[in-house]
Amino acid sequence: MKFTYFTFFIFALMAGCSLPQSSKKPTIDSPGSIITGSAEQGLSLRGAMSKKQSGAGLPINALLWRSSIDIASSLPMEDVDAISGTIITDWYKLNENSDERIKIAIFVLDRELRSDGIRVVVYVQKRDGSEWSDEGTDSEMSSRLEELILTRAREIRAETVRETN
User: Fold this and answer.
1) What's the pTM value of the predicted model, to 2 decimals?
2) CATH no., domain 62-164
3) Which of 68, 97, 123, 164 is deepest in the core (most CB within 10 A)?
């Protein structure tokens, strides 16, 4: 019985080693497998190492991200994710005696520095006794924060341009 398993294992190994050989060998520029020599599909080595590739780096605009962090840094943070471009603050009362609190969600949506590359949602809750109840969102404050983030991103870009000149 042990011999049968051993024989089966040897045949399986030998079958795995006898891969069909392609007559077309891949070059460093052509996509394909280095191991099998197949140039059918895949990613080229040069393409994987290229910085020009659209998927390289963060999928969000770094200036919008940095300015969003600058603007939201005065609030307590609940979740910060640079890969998805999301910043969510914890609930925050604008003043100590207020019966209203806000929670801000900032979404960097694009790799370009554009006005539609940022979205801010301000959630509002009001206290009713000892309970907090949802009051919806504040679109006016959301728009003001979006403008503030865009202005800060433009300032950062201008500072960077001045430093390089």
Assistant:
1) 0.63
2) 3.30.530
3) 68
